[in-house]
Amino acid sequence: MTVLTVEVPNTATHYPLKIEKGLMAHVAEEIKNVYTNKKIVMITDTNVHQLYGAKLEQQLTDSGFEVKLLVLEAGEQTKSITSLMGIYSELTAFNLTRSDLLIALGGGVIGDLVGYAAATYLRGIAFVQIPTTLLAQVDSSVGGKVAIDLPEGKNLVGAFYHPILVLIDPNVLQTLTDSAFNDGMAEVIKYASIQNINFFHQLASYQSREAVMAEIEQVIEFCCSMKRDLVQADEKDTSERMLLNYGHTVGHAIEAFYHYKGYTHGQAISIGMIAINRLTEAAGISRKGSTAVVKALLEQYHLPTELADPADYADILPLIKLDKKNIHNTLNVVVLNEVGAAKLLKTDSDFFGPLLKGHDIK
């Protein structure tokens, strides 16, 4: 088993992140190592429940826990204030106290939503992340960012609130569709693009999903280690941690414009990475040819690299002003010097103007 430890300086935050194939069979044992009370509310979605919800509920019950299972509709639309209020009502009905536990069993939507419920209910209760998608395993379950969406934008209401434990079983990825698996690969490619050219070449060397899965523990560990290091250096996302937002400035705006239905998160940030890199390459900021290199790898994993209708940028770009990296009317945009090396560029939303003219898709 690979065990990474996330330690946030100047706080009491300290928790293990465990990566092991077959770990789902030992969840109750792992929970007992960090939690001594009995009550647990486990929250999952309709897709994950069919595969693991009832089995994990039984495992926890057999180990002596008193478990309430909540099953929410799958999809980004669930990450809403309406769902959050429903969770609060269920926690109250179950008489959950600050000494009890929440478990988030699912992908990024469930992890973000349950994490925010944990951060805010009774001013904070413990929770455990059990991510079941590649995207959640390499990214959203690590680092303590929890949030819900508003109609105006993604993750606009949130907090920094860390779990007490993260359990990652790569075997659960075998149940993902190819589309969902590739969605997670967009985040994996992001990591390689911003910080490690050797990892980028490694991803390019895989010729199939099976080849990735053969080394999936190493891939997940690499991504989680990189995120851990950035979180430990910059928990509140004001400097180095912002590098993890490569492609997200445009990507989040795309998701919001299409009401979280037109493009998945991975697809949106894939388009966002190429959009920003075409702009920066044209401006002489990014190395010539870097866009084509990143684009080729994204397309190798069957990810879109441009909007089906670029005319939609006219309505998408105004949403960038709501980006959380827009501080004092200065937008902190992540750009590549070259593939494998990123930096922050301070600019404003006008920087994206060429997208309206189609300059980025020539």
UniProtKB/TrEMBL annotation:
Gene Ontology CC entries for this record = cytoplasm
One term of GO molecular function: 3-dehydroquinate synthase activity
Q: What keyword terms does UniProt attach to this protein?
A: Amino-acid biosynthesis, Aromatic amino acid biosynthesis, Cobalt, Cytoplasm, Lyase, Metal-binding, NAD, Nucleotide-binding, Zinc
Q: What is its EC number?
A: 4.2.3.4
Give the residue spans that cross the bilayer: none
Cofactor: binding comment? Binds 1 divalent metal cation per subunit. Can use either Co(2+) or Zn(2+).
**Under which name does UniProt file this protein?**
3-dehydroquinate synthase
- Reaction equations catalysed: 7-phospho-2-dehydro-3-deoxy-D-arabino-heptonate = 3-dehydroquinate + phosphate
Species the sequence originates in: Fundicoccus ignavus
Q: What is its main location?
A: cytoplasm
Q: What does this protein do?
A: Catalyzes the conversion of 3-deoxy-D-arabino-heptulosonate 7-phosphate (DAHP) to dehydroquinate (DHQ).
Named cofactor requirement(s)? Co(2+); Zn(2+); NAD(+)
Domain 3-dehydroquinate synthase C-terminal stretches: 184-326
Entry keyword Amino-acid biosynthesis: yes
Lineage, top-rank taxon, reads Bacteria
* Family indicated by similarity: Belongs to the sugar phosphate cyclases superfamily. Dehydroquinate synthase family.
Q: Where in the cell is it found?
A: Cytoplasm
User: Record-annotated residues binding Zn(2+)?
Assistant: E187, H248, H265
Amino-acid positions noted as binding NAD(+) in the UniProt annotation, renumbered to this chain: G108, V109, I110, G111, D112, T132, T133, K145, K154
Q: Which residues form a coiled coil?
A: none
Which lineage do the record's taxonomy fields give for this organism?
Answer: Bacteria, Bacillati, Bacillota, Bacilli, Lactobacillales
The gene from which this protein is expressed is aroB
